[in-house]
Amino acid sequence: MKLLATATALCLVSAAALANEPTEKDAIAMAERGAAMVKAKGKEEVMKRISAKDPDFVQGSLYIDMRDVKTGIVLAHPYNPSIVGKDLTDVPDANGKKYRRGIIELAAAKGKGWVDYQYKNPTSGKIEPKTTYILLVDGVVLEAGLYKK
Fold this sequence. Notes:
- The chain is α+β, with helices and mostly antiparallel strands and 149 residues long.
- Strands 1, 2, 3, 4, 5 and 6 form a six-stranded antiparallel β-sheet that branches.
- Strand 1 and strand 2 form a beta hairpin.
- Helix 2 crosses helix 3.
- It comes from Massilia aerilata.
- Keywords: Cell membrane, Membrane, Signal, Transmembrane, Transmembrane helix.
- This is Cache domain-containing protein.
């Protein structure tokens, strides 16, 4: 009986954890919040808030980063500040995909959309499949990604 109660409790905890996982809607909403702030307060303000891990732009494994659409240079990243100021456009993911080039091309062509690739999850520390919603605003690309389970 004790084993059944433990198993039931674990299932409930797992279901609760899954319920708190970010969704595609959350990623879109976060990118749109960023775009609205870029328009209202400027790119520099959003860059500061991303770097400071502002809860509007960083919620666990869901966060936005920012890159210049023309140069590909990373302007802000909450979990990997060492890449800020760098052009990593042609650096591939673990599977050899030049996803950053894909992000820039999609942003330039359509202004928004989704890109799939592999990236290090800041929560697990592991390379995992990720899908990222990208949104072009005022010459910068806001990227809000979800790790796929």
